[in-house]
Automatic annotation (TrEMBL):
GO cellular component, one term: plasma membrane
Entry's localization field: Cell membrane
Keyword DNA repair (UniProt): no
Pfam families: 7tm_4
Naturally occurring in which organism (per UniProt): Seriola lalandi dorsalis
Protein's name in the database: Olfactory receptor 6C4-like
Annotated TM spans: 12-28, 34-58, 67-85, 105-127, 147-170, 207-228, 248-266
InterPro entries: GPCR1_Superfamily_Member, GPCR_Rhodpsn, GPCR_Rhodpsn_7TM, Olfact_rcpt
Origin: domain of life: Eukaryota
Molecular function per GO: G protein-coupled receptor activity; odorant binding; olfactory receptor activity
Amino acid sequence: MNFFSSALGKNITFVRPAYFIISGFIGIPNIKYYYVFLLFVYIVSVLGNTAVMAVICLDHNLRTPKYIAVFNLAFADLFGSSAVVPKVLDIFLFNHHHIPFNDCFTFMFFCYTCLSMQALNLVALAYDRLVAIIFPLHYHVKVTHRFMFSLIASFWLFVITVSLIAVGFLTQLSYCKSVIIKSYFCDHGQIYRLACNDYSPSLVMSVLLPVLILWLPLVFILCTYLYIGYSLSKVATFQERLKAFKTCTAHLSLVAIYFLPILITFTYMEKINPNARIINLSLTSVFPPMLNPIIYVLQTQEIKESVKKLFRIRVKINDQLSICY
């Protein structure tokens, strides 16, 4: 219990600053152009993910368990980029570097919740591919709408809970070393190091969260595809294996785009220049949400056919309206 006593506020006087200062990049000229670039990426992300969600809602053929996960991925991408980018633009383009104490932790909660949910969505899609390829005859029994809804709901509950715990520990610290956060947002690791009392619980969370949110999902996804490859190598021809893996290319692309940059950053955190770290993490926050809908439209046959069908229907309606008028 002594481990948590200081963090839980027993017999200590909290020092809570009125605000934190987010420093962002240091010593880079014309950096505002980078934030304009982030705005462009954000606009593309909003349009792309909104389009994917609209297509899934409008086409009854896409209301399958797999596309429940795809819809949730687009929603988490849209929600996550909307939680990060507008606030970052407000901070750095309009020079609002001072962020109130409570607002900073709210900002952090939404950022980490959505970032974590993106990783767990990829786990749901990996499980869907595993059952579809290895147990095709049992797919409609094992992967039902109810199962996928329950899985997605449990993932949301999990990431909200761990994010609340991580933020809750931070609110029980005294910040008397500094109020300057050397990042582009309210970064968990940067904030707890500003505390002048025992931050051991937050330190534990900084080690535990990457394991739960990044490494375990990645290990599960890699094991899933290794098992798929091993099973197909025993029973399928080369053409059948190629055809099966073509159905996985979109998902594997998302896994690479999401996990590689963020794992490199966490692995070499102490060796990376602070400016390079900010660029890497900020691009990791906005690029996957922008690329995910593009990848699914280009590489997923069902989405392409659905878009073509909806477009033909829209053209047909416009032709009918033009005839009427």
